[in-house]
TrEMBL record:
<keyword id="KW-0813">Transport</keyword>
<dbReference type="InterPro" id="IPR003439">
    <property type="entry name" value="ABC_transporter-like_ATP-bd"/>
</dbReference>
<dbReference type="InterPro" id="IPR050683">
    <property type="entry name" value="Bact_Polysacc_Export_ATP-bd"/>
</dbReference>
<comment type="similarity">
    <text>Belongs to the ABC transporter superfamily.</text>
</comment>
<dbReference type="InterPro" id="IPR027417">
    <property type="entry name" value="P-loop_NTPase"/>
</dbReference>
<dbReference type="Pfam" id="PF00005">
    <property type="entry name" value="ABC_tran"/>
</dbReference>
<keyword id="KW-0547">Nucleotide-binding</keyword>
<feature type="domain" description="ABC transporter">
    <location>
        <begin position="42"/>
        <end position="269"/>
    </location>
</feature>
<dbReference type="GO" id="GO:0005524">
    <property type="term" value="F:ATP binding"/>
</dbReference>
<dbReference type="InterPro" id="IPR003593">
    <property type="entry name" value="AAA+_ATPase"/>
</dbReference>
<protein>
    <submittedName>
        <fullName>ABC transporter ATP-binding protein</fullName>
    </submittedName>
</protein>
<dbReference type="InterPro" id="IPR015860">
    <property type="entry name" value="ABC_transpr_TagH-like"/>
</dbReference>
<keyword id="KW-0067">ATP-binding</keyword>
<feature type="region of interest" description="Disordered">
    <location>
        <begin position="1"/>
        <end position="23"/>
    </location>
</feature>
Length: 300
């Protein structure tokens, strides 16, 4: 190819945008956790050999419940937190909700997350209806909004005449149902639920799933800790798998759940060393996790 010095300079050919160049369609950020760690100071009791009991004296120890967790949550995401017992799910939820302060790191959110059952000021000596009223007022609703929403909460909780009885007479299941119904009725932008959905019968599960789907449909952000794989698979748009206070993997629900269930099966059948080998196949770096989330939401 030849060129002459006096030929007009050609404008660079416009690059045809390829699929890869299309902007990512990411929902607006609602919550960001950066390098969050949480240590609990504990006392490890010495065994009193003579009486085979544990005494009150002991050495000081530290439980590292969370180790350098970073994640971003966006509008329209329902994020399931999974992991074996003691992996840090509930602790992470409490830290993300602002109920517990991390030892280091930072959590910022666009609105106060509603951690189910903790913020609602429920009183055992008051009836369910009175508690709905107080709970909704405590979450910032006006008295008129509270009156308008009481029937919706009562219907979702579905605990019959008990709604007019003091809450101290409730079973733990009824208690959880009412707390869940109150939390959802406040229409929080960020809702966090720890295990509650395993409480109740099929009809309640169906109604509560519907309520959670509505939250996502109106572009809220949800977090769910639950040991029921079907509940996570049905409700969550994304799953974060935790182990020993760290994120193992973060990404598309079905993919992460299938990796997680292989890990749990290996743990059950062959014990920790084999399970850790399975886990090491999936351990993602933070960069890989960012890519997974970004790639998943890319426009086609
Ligand atoms: N108040 C506390 N004091 C000391 N250690 C704690 C405290 N709360 C939690 N831990 C420890 O922190 C770690 C994470 O606990 P966490 O309850 O977050 O796990 P989890 O994944 O929710 O467990 P599970 O599935 O059993 O509910 C565990 O080792 C636990 O023993």
């Amino acid at each position: 190819m030849t060129s002459t010095s006096n030929s007009p300079k050609q404008a660079p050919a416009e690059k045809t945008p390829s699929t890869d160049d299309k902007p990512l369609k990411l929902g607006e950020l609602t919550l960001l956790a950066t390098d969050v760690s949480l240590d609990y100071n504990v006392r490890i009791a010495h065994e009193q050999k003579s009486r085979k009991l544990f005494g009150s004296s002991g050495e000081k120890g530290v439980v590292q419940a969370l180790k350098g967790i970073s994640l971003a949550a966006r509008k329209g995401e329902f994020i399931g937190l999974v992991g074996r017992n003691g992996s840090g799910k509930s602790t992470l939820l409490r830290v993300l909700a602002g109920v517990e302060t991390p030892t280091s790191g930072e959590v910022v959110a666009t609105s106060t997350p509603q951690l189910m059952g903790v913020k609602a000021a429920l009183m055992p000596n008051l009836t369910g209806v009175d508690n709905i009223r107080i709970g909704l007022l405590a979450m910032g609703l006006t008295p008129a909004e509270v009156d308008e929403r009481i029937p919706r909460v009562t219907e979702l909780a579905d605990i019959g005449n008990s709604i007019r009885m003091p809450m101290r007479t409730y079973s733990s299941g009824m208690n959880a149902r009412l707390r869940f119904a109150i939390s959802v009725a406040a229409d929080p932008d960020i809702l966090m639920i720890d295990e509650a959905l395993s409480t109740g019968d099929d009809a309640f599960r169906q109604r509560s799933n519907e309520a959670m789907k509505q939250l996502i449909a109106r572009s809220g952000t949800g977090f769910l800790v639950n040991h029921s794989a079907p509940a996570i698979r049905e409700l969550c748009t994304r799953v974060v798998w935790l182990d020993k206070g760290e994120i193992v993997a973060d990404g598309e629900t079905q993919q992460i759940m299938s990796e997680y269930s292989k890990f749990m099966n290996a743990l059950r059948r062959h014990g920790e060393p084999t399970a850790l080998k399975v886990k090491s196949r999936y351990n993602q770096t933070f960069y890989e996790r960012v890519q997974t989330i970004a790639g998943r939401t890319k426009t086609s």
